[in-house]
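Researcher: Here's the sequence for the chain we discussed earlier.
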Amino acid sequence: MTSAHRPEILDTFLHVRTRLSAVIYQRVRCSATTADLLQDTFLRFWERRSLLREVADLAGYFMTTGRNLALDHQRRKKIAPFVDGIDGLEAVSDPSPSAEQVAIGLNELRRISAVIDDMPPRARQVFLMSRIDGLTYQEIGNHLGISPKTVFSHMVVALERLRSAMRVDE
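Model: Thanks. This is the structure I predict for it:
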C-alpha cells in the first residue's frame, strides 16, 4: 500500500465497477452518461493515487465519488439547459444593456430631471429629500420647519407632475 502507483486502485475499481455503474445509472438514467461518469470516477482516483495512501476503504471512496459525480451531473443538467449548436446561442442574452437601451435610459433620465427642475421649489425640495436622501415625512418636516401633512401635500404635487409628464410620452 505504500507504492505510489497503488495497483489496488485498479483492482478495487474493477471489483466495484458493476455496483457503481448501477448506482450511477439509477441517478442519470443514461448508459452513455453512466459510462462517462464511471470513467471520470476512475480518472479522479488515478490522477490522485499518490494522495490516497491513507484511505482505508477505497471501495467506499469509489462509491461515494461516483455517486457525487452523478449528483453533480444532474444538478448541472437542471441548471444549464443544453444549447444545440450555434443557432441556439442567440437565445442566451447578455445581461448588460445594449447601446440602444443605454440611450433610451439616458433620454428618460434627462426627461425626469427636467420635470423635477420644473417643479415648484418646495415640492422639488421635499421630493429630493424623500426619494434621494431617503428621509421620512416627519424628518423632512422637522428639517424644513413644516408639518408632515404639509410635506405630504408637497409630495403629492411632485408625484402628480412626474405622473403627468410620463403620460404625455406614452
